[in-house]
Predict the structure.
Amino acid sequence: MSEPASRYDYQFDPSGDSTAARVCRLVGSGHAVLELGCAAGAMSAVMSGHYGCRVTGIEFEGPAAESARRFCVRVEQADLDQPGWAGGFQQGGFDRIVAADVLEHLRDPLGCARQLRGLLAPEGRLIVSVPNIAHGGVLAALLLGDFTYRETGLLDRTHIHFFTASTLCRLLGEAGFAVDHLETVDTGPWHPEFSAYWDQLPPEVRDALAQNPMGRAYQVIVCARAASGAVPEDADPTAGMRARQAEWLEAWAQALRGAAESAAALEALRAELDGSRQALAAMQASQSWKLTAPLRYLARKLKSRP
């Protein structure tokens, strides 16, 4: 049995909810597409066969590039970390540029993104997906003192840069793009990749982290256009997400403050009880307590008579 051309070779349902299916739907039909890091052509096959796009691919690994040629009008073997890789392509020649799970593999993702701007047609769109390092499973692993790389997944051993929704949008803004659309692929924090860590957390910690809005997303997908000028600082596509995050953090802080106040009140009650016990012990040890013992005995007897 022959080895696959790429460890990123796979098949997916174009109508499904996977990251690849969502990215292809954002690309749409009948476009000239440049796909960065096309691997063996899994997404190229869907964009060309299902959506009727004309796909040009760029791939670093030779065997994967050769496999992708089945689905692309052209595949260039190139290193996206090199400054001149875009020189062989027509300026403004692509309606869509796709970087699906690519930027996290690069040493200089900002430099790569800056080269993309000139390749887009005037009304073109850049579609990017990245793993979300703020995923709750990663937080669970970190809380247990672990951060283990894997062959594939969010902590793929070839990931060099890590992104959140905010840092991805910030990088694209620095590269001259304005993000028009943002969506997340939510798996919940108990994704199988991290379930062993999640199960080890105390239930109270799991319950708190399960409410973390930014921790539910396994991947982030954005669609961006070339900005005509400087991107306004208030044009933040993650504003709603960050507002929900702030609300969750405040609710968690209030719960912690309430727990701390309850603990302080309980400690005060314990101290008061200890003080009362000490006062009672002192009174019982006093001379007057001993002298009045017969009177207390007589009072109990009289009280017990019918």
Summary: The two ends are 101 Å apart (CA to CA). Residues 239-284 form the longest helix (46 residues).
